[in-house]
Amino acid sequence: MMLQRNLLILLFLVLMISCNTGKLDSEEKTKQFTFIESEISNPEIAQGFKVKEVDQIKMIEIFGSQDTIHASERFYLIKTGQSKLAPNDGKIIETPVNRIVCLSASQLSYLDALDDIPKLLGVSNAEYVVSQEFKGLVESGQIIETGLGEHFKIETLINLAPDIVMVAPQKGQSFQVLENAGLTVLPIGDYLESHPLGRAEWIKLFGLLTGKEKKALQIFDSIKKEYEQLRLLTVNIENRPSVITGKQYGGFWNLAGGKSYEAQFLADAGARYLWADDPSAGGLMLDFETVYHRGFEADYWRFLVYSPDEFTYTMLEAEDSRYVDFKAYREKQIITCNTLKKPFFQKGFLKPQVILADYIYIFHPSLLPDHKPVYYDLMK
To answer: For 134-172, how does the pLDDT look when each residue is reduced to its tens digit (9 = 90+)?
Structure first.
């Protein structure tokens, strides 16, 4: 009996030592890294991600729209074959990545700018053509549709064996089914940024992932320089026309929040957005009467359309006859971009300087008399 008791005590002590050793090893593995913000790739304007580094390891922290202090997810970028060197409190991505799935059209613009479309294996919708190269790869079957939301083609995604699956998480949307399948899901929250340059700055993250950090930095620096030059044209403008955005969908008027990148565009273009006092960084859903009360005398009205034909005032009136009461309708001051005809979602967000030039040309044509609209123009 005494021998049995001693054996039990010995076994207990061995287990305790083993557990404590494992705990210490784990803590030591995490403690040995002291990450500092990257002087090169950490964003200047974007709020949705941060880049920290130590030695050859880069730590990417992803933040949500409501919390830019506490990271919602953490990823460690490690050179291929060195994943054992990474800390154990985040997901590991071996770089450079060579097999990518993008589930948002805006993500294509970053890969296209970095000449990395050939690394793309799957997209949620192949109708959003970002380039002729992209179109050719879709037609040849190298890039295939993988579905979205409740319609993910799980077997297709697994067979593609991507290094990463880039998603644009929406409220209430879950990608657990992809993670359960063993896929590395990377949230790209560029659309949550409150500044057009912040959205464009996500190219830095794409550069880190694809091994083209230097090229990404050069692209962003060029975008920022051009954007700032244009913005300075309107700094001292006193006559700032009023603007409303969006229109009705499903019984509600969808318009840009006052702290959204769209609102920033309008301010930088020398306009006065009538919902600039709203604190939302995303979109708003209001009833018709609320928008009518504040916006029916707005000088300009801007929205996106998706139409195989040229969208006209007659077509807009057919949607809701009350639209004709708006000043912008009566004076033919409606600004549109037909996203079926123009690559707005595929390229526009990485060309904020071009969008800004379009707006300035419309609001203050004398400032850019030779500009030719690329995305936005007055509706015919």
So the answer is: 999 999 999 999 987 668 899 999 999 999 999 998 777
pTM: 0.87
Stated as kind and residue range, the H or E segment containing 109 is: helix 105-113
In the predicted structure, residue 221 carries a pLDDT above the cut 90:
yes
The token duo for 75 is: 């990823």
Q: Is residue 30 part of a domain?
A: no
Q: Tell me the backbone φ, ψ of residue 166, rounded to 5 degrees.
A: -90, 130
Same domain, 330 and 248: yes
How far, in Å, CA of 100 to CA of 345, rounded?
19
Q: Is the domain of 186 the same as that of 252?
A: no
Taking only the tens place, the pLDDT of each residue in 269-294 is 999 999 999 998 888 999 999 999 99
Structure token pair of residue 148: 């979205």
If you search the block for the tokens 């996500």, which residue do you land on? 202
**Phi, psi of 44, deg, nearest 5:** -85, -35
Q: Are 258 and 265 in contact (CB under 8 A)?
A: no
Q: Same domain, yes or no, for 339 and 309? A: yes
171/288 same-domain check: no
